[in-house]
Amino acid sequence: MYWLFVLIFISLPFVIFVYGRGISFLIACVLTTDIRKSSKMF
Asked: Which residues cross the membrane (predicted)?
């Protein structure tokens, strides 16, 4: 049971890093699509 907590504790920063990268990638995709839409308007 102890090694399970150790494994979770070690993998937690990696999971947070991947999750953060995924969110930033999603925001970047949304921003680029918004910029394309606004550039089509002008």
From this structure: 6-31
